[in-house]
Design a protein that fits this description.
It comes from Arcobacter venerupis. InterPro entries: DctP_fam, SBP_TakP-like, TRAP_DctP_sf. The chain has 354 residues and is of the alpha/beta class. The protein has two domains: 164 residues, 3-Layer(aba) Sandwich (D-Maltodextrin-Binding Protein, domain 2), CATH 3.40.190; 110 residues, Periplasmic binding protein-like II (D-Maltodextrin-Binding Protein, domain 2), CATH 3.40.190.10. The chain contains 13 helices and eleven strands. α12 packs antiparallel against α13. The longest helix is centred in the C-terminal third of the chain and has 36 residues. The chain is globular and about 65 Å long.
């Protein structure tokens, strides 16, 4: 009897080990839609890098197919596709969904807000991830930082902006919250598709436009016809995002969940430094080929007016949305703390060494 039991125990152990091995060898396949087209570097590169990292770290057990906007044809439909289950993951940006949920807005960037290093610190150590989960849970998706473009430039202008009066009636492409601020200052904010921007600027249908920074502006050619390049204020830490269908994520084994989270975090930081390098290289090329480009900063009275309009809009929105107020208050409190160190370290170092 004892021998029989022993044999059964051995068989059970072998069966259990075989089952675990089989489970560990199972390949999980996910699909990812991006808001970006195939040529939108470094955005599309980041999504592909994340998929490659996940596959390599999982030893081939987690495979993610990346479909660019060229394939699925709905760049601003990826949120609904992930929520509805047509795709498992998307690489996009949180502020695109402000029309669906205004609380998604601050997780990309806010005018006069946190810089990229400050915002990453807020996400992971200042309560940002918890607040983002609070916002996205009700939509059935998880959201993670997906890579930053850093400080975005304030735009290309055909004429120099010296006073507030120079903004009145100016036809400018500048979307989102920044567009609302500019509209309060008298700018005629216009939404023009990306493929028509250069022609619109060239034919005077636009007087100015905001895009990203040298890394992505150079291929658009704006610097060829608009020589005044203004420094940024509206998106100091433009963070992309990964959104994942919660039910799909929870069906993954625990180790693959962790691998996916790590792959997203690594690829996000790599996008930040990749874009930093691209900006440096693109700017060298721009200023060499077009020495007439003038880098400008908006005058103090203009900046003060922008800050005033920004605060008025924030106050209005916060009064109507308690959760938005909670998020903005969290960012403000963190910035008050972290900005002292940013000034002591980066700012004063640069001030004394430029």
């Amino acid at each position: 009897m004892k021998k029989t039991i022993k044999k059964l125990c051995i068989l059970l152990t072998l069966f259990t080990a075989s089952s675990v091995l089989s489970a560990n060898e199972k390949v999980y396949k996910l699909s990812m839609a991006t808001t970006w087209g195939e040529t939108a570097s470094p955005l599309i590169d980041t999504a592909k890098s994340m998929a490659k990292l996940a596959e390599e770290m999982s030893d081939g057990r987690l495979i993610i197919r990346v479909d660019s906007a060229n394939k699925h044809k709905a760049p601003l439909g990826v949120f609904d596709m992930v929520k509805g289950g047509q795709y498992d993951i998307a690489h996009t940006a949180s502020y695109y969904w402000k029309g669906k949920d205004i609380n998604t807005l601050p997780f990309t960037s806010m005018p006069f807000g946190l810089t990229s290093p400050e915002q990453y610190a807020w996400f992971y150590y200042g309560g940002g991830m918890e607040l983002m989960k609070k916002v996205y849970d009700k939509h059935g998706v998880l959201s993670f930082p997906g890579g930053s473009t850093g400080v975005q430039m304030g735009g290309w202008f055909k004429k120099e902006i010296k006073t507030l009066d120079d903004l009145k009636g100016l036809k400018m492409r500048i979307p989102g919250f920044a567009g609302e601020i500019m509209a309060k200052l008298g700018v005629q904010v216009t939404n023009v598709p990306a493929g028509e921007l250069f022609t619109s600027l060239e034919t005077n249908n636009l007087d100015a436009l905001e895009w990203v920074g040298p890394s992505m502006d150079i291929s658009m050619g704006f610097h060829k016809i608009a020589p005044y390049y203004y420094t940024g204020w509206h998106e100091p830490a433009s963070e992309m995002q990964y959104i994942i269908n919660t039910k799909k994520f929870e069906k993954l084994p625990a180790d693959l969940q962790q691998i996916l989270v790590v792959a997203m975090r690594v690829s996000a930081y790599d996008m930040y430094i990749h874009n930093y390098d691209m900006n440096a290289n693109a700017w060298q090329e721009m200023k060499s080929e077009y020495p007439n480009i003038q880098v400008k900063t908006f005058a103090k009275d203009i900046m003060d007016a922008m800050k005033k309009a920004n605060q008025e809009l924030r106050t209005e929105m916060s009064a109507e949305n308690p959760l938005l107020k909670e998020i903005l208050d969290s960012q403000d409190a963190y910035m008050k703390k972290v900005r002292e160190w940013t000034k002591m370290s980066d700012y004063l170092y640069l001030k004394d060494n430029l």
